[in-house]
């Protein structure tokens, strides 16, 4: 594609796909392996009369559902830092999108945008940390008198 055919801001169309994190260490237990295998065997037995897309969707859905039931989902740890806020989260998401855009299109323009976004996130985090520290210092000074 030429430069003129590309959208002005390719990051607008990107969507971050979040998949659950499974507790794969549970597969070390033999009974869990057997349970998982039995569930999959039951689901994949009868594929007669199904289209290729239906078979694919059946396999995909079965893998997700049976994995979740057999080994469970690992909770994603969220940041509980005092200085963390929605603005930082949004800024990090935008930085990720710009990084992905740069990886896919590999142009200098997007490399510079990626670096600028990275610097913006660092600056924002530094500012929020300093603000949080200042607030806590003021609270301590108020308590001390």
TrEMBL record:
This is Ycf1. It comes from Cryptolaemus montrouzieri.
